Amino acid sequence: MAEEEENYYGKHGEPRKYDPDFKGPIQNRGCTDIVCCILFILAVLGYVAVGIVAWSQGDPRKVIYPTDSMGQFCGQAGTPVANKPYLFYFNIMKCASPMVLLEFQCPTTQLCVESCPNISTTLHDAKRKTDSTKDPKHIKYYQSFCKDTPITGMSVPAILAEGICPAALVASKPFARRCIPSLSMIGEKLVIGNSERFDDGQGSIRNVKELVPGIKNATIVMEARQVVMKIFEDFTRSWYWILICLAMAMVISFIFIVLLRFLAKVMVWVMIIMVILVIAYGIVHCSVEYVNLKNKPGSNVTLQELGFQVDFSVYLHIQQTWLAFIIILAILELIIILLLIFLRKRIAIAIALIEEASRAIGHVMSSLFYPLLTFLLVGVVIAYWATTAVFLSTSNQPVYKIFNDSACEYSRNTCQPANYSMSEMKKKCPDSECLFAFYGGETPYHKYLIFLQFYNVFLFFWCANFVTALGQMTLAGAFASYYWAFRKPNDIPSCPLFASLGRALRYHTGSLAFGSLILSIIQLIRVLLEYLDHKLKGAQNKFAKFLLCCLKCCFWCLEKFIKFLNRNAYIMVAIYGKNFCTSARDAFFLLMRNVIRVAVLDKVTDFLLFLGKLLIVGLVGVFAFFFFSGRVEAFDPATPHLNYYWVPILTVIVGSYLIAHGFFSVYAMCVDTLFLCFCEDLERNDGSPARPYYVSPELCKILALSETPGASTRSPSGLQPSEEDIELKAHPKD
């Protein structure tokens, strides 16, 4: 037996020795991983510099407002086109050019206008009606879609030759702030108004179908922008209700955690039963919806036939959608029930661990509010990243190119609109125009812009992981102080959470930066693999797809392992104050020496806490669904009118999970810290009066010590420490 124990420990390091002077987190410690600390500070300073450059060069108006041929933002306050919010195309049929797909700009003059044309007419007709009726209203209306150049006394051919006005107007309606021809169907005929044909103003009668390719190309980017604008509009209409739902999630999470503190066993079983009931209700509700759609026309369309739809509510009118929901929920219900059956004996042990964590949190109540600081810091990181990304993506300069109808050697060359009319290129190509094409640039800054975006993403991962790591180490130090206090709560140091936060920032910023750097590199590689996967969607190389899939799976597993290792390494850093690599090694060997307990205790506890998150998300998500979808008449007066009601619902579900995860992460970190301290306690002490365990007698009885090699030599007393034990602990025998 002794030989087996020696071989086992030889593989996974030496167990901790008894140290009479050890009383929890080491106070006398020094700075760790200084090189990484300096590197992190320099990286953050560089990140600030990138943000300043982006803010000085970028202009978010390029995303919000459409740009006319002169580079002006339509509808931008404080500009000559402030009251002209819509973009009008002189000849939208030119948008059918393949160049639109390359440059995202139609090779035709574009103007900012007050409103889109509501009639179809031509310049010839407007001139003729004005001359015959002596009423200038016809030509004045037409002039509202022309350049600011006087046309009094000019003939129609001269006006068209100068490119002052469009040859024809087509009845249009605004779409994403652009004027798009108002096409409609009468039977199987495509019409504008009531006609299948229109006059192009240049002596030809054209079919309405000829407008379709140009409209499609012109709306490639506009449709995406329109969806984004509608989503933004939904947020502006429902933000306060979203905040109310998130506040509900926060209150429910807090109440649940507080009840868990006093009624851990009852609350865990209530949580388990409630999760099963909530999922069962979801199955019943989806089944009812499925049956109700059975005889409705169009409900038997398959998801494959329907394809992707921006309005997700369309899917709720299809039977197959509800069938998919039923199958997913049923599988989830079955998995949870089977896990509960197989883990029924371990649940009692996990509940004991949660009860011990509840006692620890009861003595460090400030830990329940620490997630708010983490949320705040992560929110700052996300806001900085998103703002910098927007400004970087809009920091290009307007590029103007030559567009022409006839052959021209300078076609698609860059130009300057200010002096183009007097240039040599205009003289050689008289019918050409210098129009705004896209945003770009040829300076070194613009050439390396992609690397700045790459740096922005990488620093976002690094800073977000650093904030998370700081929270983990802070909580670990506080709960370790609780565990290694022999007389609780008398020996617990004052303000353990703030003391732990101070130690983490003062001594271990480098270790936090080191661990988060490793994790960030792996996450960045996963982002690059996803990007490559997106680029290879149309590729036919099966081996490349298989290899990419394997790499994605491997790096996903690696990320999970690094997160697990980092978490335990931070606990060891918080206790012993050693550098990251040494702490990671010690934590890994300690866990390997107690691998059975890790599998059956720690992970079961994680599963129970996950059910708690699932319950909170389910309760708040069901309420959000019935409120925002308008399915409950009592909510109708307060329910906001939305384009996509799934937008606030998804926001509430994701936000509720993050809030629940934030609160339950305190419990999870407490359990992990107590578990690691418990494993060390077993190695340092033997339960004798001279070396009593720090773990509570109740937990010591439940956690069977026979599960680790060599445990037969240990025999927990199972008794509350007496005054004699405490005296022996303070003054051990030689």
TrEMBL record:
Residues 709-720 have a biased composition (Polar residues). The keyword 4Fe-4S does not apply. It is a multi-pass membrane protein. Its main location: membrane. Keywords: Antiport, Cell membrane, Glycoprotein, Membrane, Mitochondrion, Mitochondrion outer membrane, Phosphoprotein, Transmembrane, Transmembrane helix, Transport. It holds the Pfam family Choline_transpo. It is found in: Cell membrane; Mitochondrion outer membrane. One of its GO terms (cellular component) is plasma membrane. InterPro entries: Choline_transptr-like. Belongs to the CTL (choline transporter-like) family. This is Choline transporter-like protein. The lineage of its organism: Eukaryota, Metazoa, Chordata, Craniata, Vertebrata. The gene is LOC115817956.
